[in-house]
Amino acid sequence: MKPDLVRVLDGNVFVLSEDNGDIEANVANPCGFFDFDTRFLSVWRLTLDGERLHPLSIAERDHLHLRFFLVPGRPTHYVDAKSSVIRERTITGGVFEERLTVLNHNHVPVEYTVRLDVGSDFSPILTVAAERRPPGRLYQCPEERGLRLGYQRERFRRETLVTSSEPVRADEQGLTWTVRLAPKQVWTTTVRVQAQVLRPDGVDVRDRLERRPRASAGERQQDLANWLSRTPQLSCDWEALTDVYRRSLVDLAALRYSPLTMPDQVMPAAGLPWAATITGRDSILTSFMALPVASELAAATVRMLGIDQGAVLDDFRDEEPGKILREFRYGEMVAFEERPESPYYGSADATPLYVILLDEYERWTGDVDLVREFEDEARAALRWIDEYADLLGDGYVRYLRRNERSGVANQGWKDSPEAICFADGRLPGPPLATCELQGYAYDAKMRGARMAREFWGDPAYADRLEREAAALRERFDRDFWIADRGYYALALDSDGRQVDALASNMGHLLWSGIVPAERAAQVAAHLVGPRLFSGWGIRSLATEQERYNPIGFHVGSVWPFDNALITWGLRRYGFSEEAGRVAEAMVDASRYFHGRLPEAFAGYPRELTEYPVRYPTANSPQAMATAAPFLLLRALLGLEAVGEHLLMAPRVPARFGRVELLDVPGRWGRRDVIGSGLAHVGP
């Protein structure tokens, strides 16, 4: 995605445009109005008397509202514009509105021709960055007050309805207004764009499914204000931390949406633009990291993923009983089974992470009812670890796609084809057991044991899970530890050989607790050593590895969520200085992205670039990156939910100065946490 595209979004509904508000989509510039995993507008081009418009400024009130101040032609220092245009853009619940205002600055009457070119290719979001000829029929129907665009393929039908509040001439390519203005006069119209997901009888599918009316723009704005008022208030001497915290709160609010199955609850969409949908891993980890600010996201995520938990063996969808989905899509390719995301279960990490989230949610909130309500789902997830994930019978979680045509080959968080590799660049043979999957499985068993003993009334099951976790920890250390290099292998291949690349994955092992105490110092040293630590964060793959590439998606770039989990793991093992170093680097990097951490950025060494380099196709905002500052802050302040208490052990680097996080919510009510880097001395 072009990094300079302007966006408004409401959960999984969003608009991406150029800085003048225009949309002209192509393979290199996949902008548009998107809803229901479909692009409903691919052309949205405004002209005044045939001239393109150029921006003077853009005002972003919040994620729902944008205002563009424009002039025809290119503005110069020598010629005053005789007219200007304001585009005010809002989006709520599947409806995109644009208020167009034309201002006559001249001292004589003027007649303008205002033209809005409108079009849609109705591309599935999965294909907007590739050439594709639509297999169905596109149609355009001018109407009295606007234009109806449509696409039909057998029973699959989508329409975009564009209407004007003022009289307009519509043709198949757009809308035209003739505007006569007296000196200093203003003309305004509101153009409304509605995405329609139609059944064969012409009824919008969502009208029958949603049980409450869609919120208005004003209601959504009030909802944002209420959301921000409920979250903990942060103050810090280092302004960069408060900036990234505030930006993350607003972006996380923007990424909330209500699935059709649960219209009264909100969970996080994974990210804009490529992952604005229900996901397993992303929603779980986002909800985990956001527990100190918005625990309700975790409850909705547990419910939604539990409802869609795998129940049968389905090769096309890589579904297995107990397995948690990878992602859910609604678009054309899914409807005709050209893609498996209906839902798709090709993720080996989401299932143990589901158990981890359920337990951590109860620790933070005390919501025992949810733990009991989803006991069967948690047990099924734990059973999946042993019965379906152990593909070779060696006690390790492995993955092997059964959908060879359109399934995902690598089913951990590093899912690009070359992500799991030997140090010399060779690619290992599946089924693969990546190291972090074993850490997640260990943690899931330990947390499952706690829930079984305290809430499910099954101490025998708890004892069994703890024995299994201890055995996993012992054999993991034996089989994954590379003694002569002092770090854990990235994975085991199908023959049990160590995939010996040095990668960030082993930082997740500290988060899970599977690392023996005597190994932790060596692991920590590698994580913050020069091969992995760029100065801006921990790289996904270390330098000197054959496939290392500072702008490789999973083979050298820096991922904020990855760094946040590692930071929490470093604190867990007592490496406060190292944790502070990573957290400081992340917050420092955020200053170069206007306070919004992207999905990933380049892994160039800090001394080479002097600033973090943007990764060209990263999602932004992306939910896990958006939530990363919350976990970084939790690590700095040492926040841990234990019983009815919030424990705190601040270890704040000096650069942060005084940090105050007020009204932290949880089962304890609300608590204030204060830490000071200026006063910190010692380990």
Automatic annotation (TrEMBL):
Ranges where the Mannosylglycerate hydrolase MGH1-like glycoside hydrolase domain occurs: 433-592
A Pfam family assignment: MGH1-like_GH
Identification of the protein by name: Glycogen debranching N-terminal domain-containing protein
Segments forming domain Putative glycogen debranching enzyme N-terminal: 10-192
Residue ranges the record marks as coiled coil: none
InterPro entries to which the protein is assigned, alphabetical: 6-hairpin_glycosidase_sf, 6hp_glycosidase-like_sf, GDE_N_bis, MGH1-like_GH
